[in-house]
Amino acid sequence: MITNMRFKGQRCRLRKPQCILSPTSGIQPPRRSLLTSSSPWTSASGLVKAEPFPEARKSAYKLSIDFGPTLGTKRSSAQITAHYTPEELVGRQVAAVVNFPPRQIGKFMSEVLTVGFPDQNGAVVLFSPDRPVPNGARLF
C-alpha cells in the first residue's frame, strides 16, 4: 500500500523502507545501516600484513591494509582462508568499503569491509583490480 503524505512541505510517498511512519513523530528518513548506507566508498588498497585470527568463530585472517596517504592504514578481518595463505596476500591489491562503521570481532576492531565474491562452495574469492592502481583509488 502506498500513501501520499506531506512532510515539512514536501510530498512523501510512504513505502517501506523508503520512509518510516512513527505515531509520535510523523515520517522519518530511512535508518542508516550496512545495507542502507548511501554511496559505499570502495577503494583499492595494498595488503601490508596478514596473520591468522585464531580467536574468530570462523576461520579468518587479520589484515592491515594501506589506503595511501589520505586514509592511511586500516585493519580488517576477512574469512578468506579457503583460497589464500597470509604469505600470498601480502603485497596484493584488494578492494574494501571504507565508510561503513567499524565492527568489533572478538578483541579485534575491523575498520573496513574487504570485499569478494562467493565461489561455487561459498568460499570468498577476493575482488581486486587486474592491473596495479594507486592505493586509495576509489571505485566508480
Written description of the protein model:
The protein has 140 residues and is mainly beta. The protein has a domain at 42-126: OB fold (Dihydrolipoamide Acetyltransferase, E2P) (Beta Barrel). Helices cover 6% and strands 41% of the residues. It has helices at 68-71, 86-89, and strands spanning 3-7, 10-14, 20-22, 26-28, 42-52, 61-66, 73-78, 93-97, 103-105, 108-110, 113-114, 116-118, 124-126. A five-stranded antiparallel sheet has the order 7-6-5-8-11. A hairpin with a 2-residue loop joins strand 1 (3-7) and strand 2. The longest helix has 4 residues, at 68-71. The protein starts with a strand and ends in a 14-residue tail after the last strand.
Comma- or semicolon-separated keywords:
140 residues; mainly beta; OB fold (Dihydrolipoamide Acetyltransferase, E2P); five-stranded antiparallel beta sheet
Reported CATH architecture of the domain at 42-126: Beta Barrel
Which class of secondary structure composition applies to the elements?
Answer: mainly beta
CATH class of the domain at 42-126: Mainly Beta
Q: Number of DSSP helices?
A: 2
- What is the CATH topology descriptor of the domain at 42-126? OB fold (Dihydrolipoamide Acetyltransferase, E2P)
Mean pLDDT: 80
User: What quaternary form is this?
Assistant: single chain
Strand proportion, as a percent range, falls in: 35-45%
Count the E strands.
Answer: 13
Provide the CATH superfamily of the domain at 42-126: Nucleic acid-binding proteins
Question: Low-confidence parts, pLDDT < 50 over ≥5 residues?
Answer: 1-10, 12-32
What profile does the largest beta sheet have? 5 strands, antiparallel
